[in-house]
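# step 3/5: fold
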Amino acid sequence: MKLIAILIFIATYILLLVLPKYRTYISLFSALLFVLIGILPFQKALSYIDWNVILMIGGTMGIVNLFIESKMPALMADVIIDKVASIKWAIISLAAFAGIVSAFIDNVATVLIIAPVAMDIAKKLNISPVYMIISIAISSNLQGAATLVGDTTSLLLGGYAKMDFIDFFFFKGRMGLFWIVQIGAVATIPILLLFFREYNQPIHLEEKQEVEDYFPSYLLILMVALLIIASFIPNKPEITNGLICTTLLLIGIIKEVVISKNKHALNNTLLQIDYETILLLMGLFVVIGGISEVGVINDISKIFSRFGKGNLFLIYTIIVWFSVFVSAFIDNIPYTATMLPVVSKIAQEMGIQPYLLYFGLLVGATLGGNITPIGASANITGLGILRKEGYEVKAKDFMKLSIPFTLTAVITGYILTWIIWR
């Protein structure tokens, strides 16, 4: 059974890399194989799915869609831009704003919110929008690891390590991932200043976006507040965070349908939820459960431990930079989902708390996707927006900014995580 499980697992990853358009079907089919072959009984397969993470993703995506439709993010971007003196500072401000938004909203949604503003500025000033969009995309990726709801990888870590919203800020009396990521973001500002040093044209927006509805903004603020409050509740149900997000989404839809008389709100909002990512994760949870069931996770952890030779710093270093390398070429969602139990097993074998290795994994996996155009969904989305406007971006052009930006952020996070959590 172990050999069959390994072959299915390897085939799944190869197909996820070679056929990214079909990754959801690949994940679900692989999960089905584990059940049909008998590696995992159906009921046990369902138990491996983290329903709290699934509900959180669905609820957050729906609320974000209502937030986008309200035009509030566009207004916030306009206000920031109107306060700066030149296009250089407009780009850096937009990138920083994208990072802040992305700490609480999905990275792809962040790019979709802010990229149109950058495109508009570029058209008014008759300049190329290419590196403006790239800086927004990579900044949103950087901040994805900052909070529990910032990115799917954070949700995976939160679900697996039983971490709540507040734990990303302060955890076990120490500085959490939020502050590590913020320091990394600050460290990248000189990179952006150097790269955009010649973009000194003055800028001013004549009109600001008008907000159509403030209620989704209140919902988003309430979601964050309730997730924080829930962090302090002991012995709460495991799906508490998921129920918070889905309940608030339901309230938002009811408000649109009943009070705003928007008959299409239900369909429009539900259709905007990324069901492919949700189903992809459900399949991966089962696949990972299957290889764990037959002992493969134990075997992988022993390989890492063997390379690390029992040296914690060496193992930590391998995990961070291996994650950077892998995430530069494949989606970090399946990689993170696979590696979390591996990292946990390594820590268990070494007799240490796993949090240093957890955070190192997230720093490497989340930020590593910034290196290449295909390493993260936000990058693909940003380049897709440029392509629609007639701009084809080569990998080497993308990497002129992404490599120094990413290496600066990763090295900063790598050092800080070790200092704080060793």
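# step 4/5: annotate
Residues 395-421 form the longest helix (27 residues).
# step 5/5: archive (pending)
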